[in-house]
Specification:
It is a single chain. The protein contains twelve helices and two strands. The protein is mainly alpha-helical. It has a domain at 2-96. It has a two-stranded antiparallel ribbon. It is globular, with a radius of gyration of 24 Å. The protein starts with a helix and ends in a 24-residue tail after the last helix.
Length: 263
């Protein structure tokens, strides 16, 4: 909306927040300014009126609506639903395909898992083979979807189940969307970690946790230490020259158990 107002102002110096607010039938002369600042929001009727002012197609209008919902939604569920719709629309437009697929990659735990599985010498680009190997089980449709996403992101290229190449691929996700996708990723992985307690015997997993009291000023130090630990774990895994035959998830985290002030 800020870009739209700037465009209108550039083409007509007399265009004002008052006029813009009047065009979407708001009685407040500063309404559009407040919406841009984030202190007010458009209701459904005002969204319709704003989209009409853009003079775009029905599909483009829906895209704008979902962008607005994504920007202003207060719950992660609404944001996730909106981004799924945006991602679907972007898949119809090659210009935005990588952004949409990047979101889908991060939001589906089995995509990074299959990407890592593809580094194993016995890997097959075959949905049935994948669902026979991956734990917990996914559907054949999810396996097919993951292979398509990996291809679209240029992380995986194959001509047959046994003839394929892997690469770092092309990854592009706006910071706001990336934050939402990463939230989905961690939420799913933490759920898998919870399930692993009953799903795997102790010798196949390692769960470690401590509960401590700290001064909140120590948090940046702890983050730095844990980041260094992850880097060391990756060095150990990537430095191992023996054939890869297993895919695991390593999770390192901490979170508060009290309010910030300790009350």
């Amino acid at each position: 909306m800020e870009d739209w107002f700037g465009f209108k102002k550039e083409n007509n110096p007399r265009f004002s927040y008052r006029l813009a607010s009047r065009l979407i039938k708001s009685k407040s002369p500063s309404f559009i300014k407040d919406v841009i600042k984030g202190t007010k929001s458009l209701n459904t009727a005002q969204q319709d009126k704003f989209i009409d002012l853009l003079c775009v197609s029905q599909e483009e209008g829906e895209y704008v609506r979902q962008l607005y919902i994504l920007e202003h939604a207060t719950s992660s569920e609404i944001k996730h639903a909106s981004m799924e719709k945006i991602s679907a629309m972007r898949r119809m437009n090659s210009t935005f395909k990588i952004e949409g697929e990047s979101y889908r990659y991060l939001s589906r735990w089995y995509c990074p898992a299959i990407r890592e599985m593809s580094l194993q010498p016995n890997f097959r680009c075959d949905p049935q083979w994948i669902i026979d190997q991956i734990v917990p089980k996914i559907t054949i449709e999810q396996a097919q979807e993951a292979l398509q996403i990996l291809q679209d992101l240029q992380m995986l290229s194959y001509t047959s189940p046994t003839e394929y190449t892997t690469s770092e691929g092309s990854f592009s996700t706006p910071m706001q969307v990336q934050g939402l996708a990463v939230h989905n990723y961690h939420e799913q992985m933490l759920s898998l970690a919870k399930g692993s307690v009953k799903l795997f015997p102790e010798e196949q997993r390692h769960l470690l946790g401590v509960t401590v009291s700290i001064n909140k000023d120590l948090i940046p130090v702890l983050k730095k230490e844990l980041n260094s630990m992850v880097a060391r774990v990756l060095d150990v895994c990537e430095g191992d020259t023996s054939p890869k035959n297993h895919t695991i998830q390593v999770g390192i985290h901490f979170f508060p158990l009290t309010d910030e002030d300790g009350s």
